[in-house]
Write a structure and sequence with these properties.
CATH topology of the largest domain: Jelly Rolls
Distance between the termini: 48 Å
Number of strands: 10
Mean pLDDT: 85
Strand content: 15-25%
Radius of gyration: 21 Å
CATH superfamily of the largest domain: Jelly Rolls
Low-confidence stretches: 1-5, 17-26
Oligomer: single chain
Structural class: alpha+beta
Strand order of the largest sheet: 1-7-2-5-9
Helix content: 40-55%
Length: about 300
């Protein structure tokens, strides 16, 4: 993108954008990308890839080999074409539509609990990227080496449950070290195609805000107070709320609640903790408030969310 500098102020702004972009690109250490392979394989569909309102706590990536289909996302519709890879981030509600022969490789990646700002939060990943034979060979190798990682069936209800996910995670954890190293390398190579064309999303050159984000993620299981965050930033509470919203286009409370509810979805999916226990483990002293907040942000209650996953 060209930036036409017409004044000294324009020049300073241009420099600040370069610094912010650079900071965004180095914000996540590669060591923190705790990716686990849940499923990988190759499948052929005959106008039967038509699942509605799918949402999961793991990342889906498809590499299309033959035919076309439609991917319906909350903000756009995407035509899936041969020779391209497509990514669906965790928790994104989406639907599929297929009217003919459709062949693709797939991989499902799961991220374990961590305190760092995550990849999807820092970057706006492109949904579609062009991929060549090197990607095809990666998928072929992983599928051949791990036939037990194929999906049991095309219907998400056959594999997208907490019980099944626990089995997949355990299978990965029990692999030999060299197998995990191979898979980690392959997954990072696949993700690199999307990162190469990604745009910074939530980023900041303000060291105070960096400290605040770090504090939030390290204390996501605690009750976090805005005054506490203002103290971390060493500014007044009123000024802190204003600069946080300017940087991230949301209030501190909105950001904290969103991160807590993302963790809650993962806990409801992967543990047997009661809804009340999940609320308390995430720093909510009033579990009724947690239920109301969850319903407001997810559209359903935590109980119903868990029941849907365990059908």
């Amino acid at each position: 993108m060209l930036f036409w500098v017409q004044s000294y102020d324009d020049f300073l702004y241009f420099c600040s954008q370069i610094v912010k972009y650079y900071n965004a690109m180095i914000q996540i250490p590669i060591e923190s990308m705790n990716l686990m392979m849940l499923n990988v394989g190759y499948t052929t569909h005959h106008a039967d890839w038509n699942w509605q309102k799918v949402s999961s706590p793991f990342i889906r990536i498809f590499y299309i080999m033959e035919g076309e289909a439609m991917l319906h996302l909350p903000d756009k519709d995407v035509r899936l074409k041969p020779g391209y890879m497509y990514i669906i981030p965790a928790y994104v509600i989406h639907s599929y539509e297929c009217h003919g022969v459709f062949k693709l490789y797939y991989i499902h990646m799961y991220e374990g609990f961590k305190n760092e700002v995550d990849l999807q939060e820092t970057f706006e990943l492109p949904t579609e990227v062009l991929a060549g034979n090197s990607v095809k060979r990666l998928f072929e190798y992983m599928s051949t080496q791990h036939p037990d990682a194929m999906l049991p069936g095309p219907d998400p209800k056959s594999y997208d449950t907490s019980a099944q996910t626990s089995v997949y995670v355990e299978r990965y954890m029990n692999m030999a070290l060299w197998e995990k190293m191979e898979l980690r390398g392959a997954m990072l190579m696949i993700m690199s195609y999307f990162i190469r064309e990604a745009k910074p999303r939530i980023w900041t050159s303000d060291e105070r805000m960096k400290r605040v984000l770090k504090h939030i993620h390290e204390h996501i299981s605690d009750e976090i107070d805005v005054t506490e965050l203002a103290n971390v930033a060493t500014v007044t509470k009123t000024y802190f709320i204003r600069i946080f919203k300017q940087e991230f286009d949301q209030t501190p409370i909105q950001y904290i609640n969103r991160k807590k509810l993302e963790r809650a979805q993962l806990m409801l999916f992967t543990t047997d903790c009661s809804v009340k226990e999940v609320a308390y483990k995430l720093g909510f002293s009033d579990h009724s408030y947690f239920i109301r907040l969850f319903r407001k942000m997810a559209g359903i209650t935590p109980q119903k969310y868990r029941r849907q996953l365990r059908v």
